[in-house]
């Protein structure tokens, strides 16, 4: 996976001095399970009563899933009311980074504060707690052997989160960058009873035949000049040994799942920034239960988060004509769990 890791490793080096704000002590759950089941153990109710309820600000929680310690970061917005169910947005990091870096890279905490949702940054697994990846599929068997079940981790995370914060179970959504975007597609396919909708950025499907329990709305952002996860699929420059679908294959697969027409309505966004990119929105649907698939195609865009200036040049151009965070939240608001 050398190619896929180049960008995140560079970003890690650039950002390692910028940590998730620690306005309060980390809240930790010390959980163990005595089997190979991916579920968490039977102590959550007691431990939840003992744990401090996270207030506004930034927190870390830990749990053990299938005998492996896992962690995630929580950003609670200032207007959080523990008496009211609150929406949650999972933000999944790319390969070679982690939750702390992704909070800064995406700027999603600022959107959390203005919109009032809880932002969650789960951590994958890997070296030294910094260079982490998701088991999102697409790897040959010899490379995927022994990797954790990250769908089970996200399910356990949501169970744990619900013990300390008032989560609206109808409004839990997932977004992610690159390998994290690929993981979004896996969650949509395998955890559709918990994930209302997804918004992958620069990450495509890794499987051929998703079979979710229900239609899952999809908002996908991708640059046509992305050299790390190429728009047209693997072209010899992608991660060695990894397979993934093209943007078109990913979009059409979810059009089939969601019962959406395969001919989109097309809208060109205004060229506000004159940054060498143009943005076209392709909307497929609505289909079953109002689900839709939306592609935000960024001509000239690289392996970047729209609306955020790239921190290093070699990942390509980032369009400033739109804000991914604004469009993601607008989309999530339209699509609660049905």
Characterize the structure shown.
The chain is α/β, with parallel strands linked by helices and 338 residues long. The chain has one domain: Alpha/Beta hydrolase fold, catalytic domain (Rossmann fold), CATH 3.40.50.1820. The chain is 26% helix and 22% strand. The chain contains 9 helices and 12 strands. It has helices spanning 2-15, 44-50, 99-106, 108-115, 141-144, 150-161, 179-190, 247-258, 324-334, and strands at residues 57-65, 68-76, 86-92, 118-122, 125-127, 131-133, 167-177, 198-201, 218-223, 265-268, 278-284, 293-299. The strands form 2 sheets. The chain has a 10-stranded mixed sheet, sandwiched between helices. Strands 5-6 form a two-stranded antiparallel sheet.
Please describe the topology of this protein.
Elements: H1 2-15, H2 44-50, E1 57-65, E2 68-76, E3 86-92, H3 99-106, H4 108-115, E4 118-122, E5 125-127, E6 131-133, H5 141-144, H6 150-161, E7 167-177, H7 179-190, E8 198-201, E9 218-223, H8 247-258, E10 265-268, E11 278-284, E12 293-299, H9 324-334
Parallel strand pairs: 3-4, 3-7, 7-8, 8-9, 9-12
Antiparallel strand pairs: 1-2, 2-4, 5-6, 10-11, 11-12
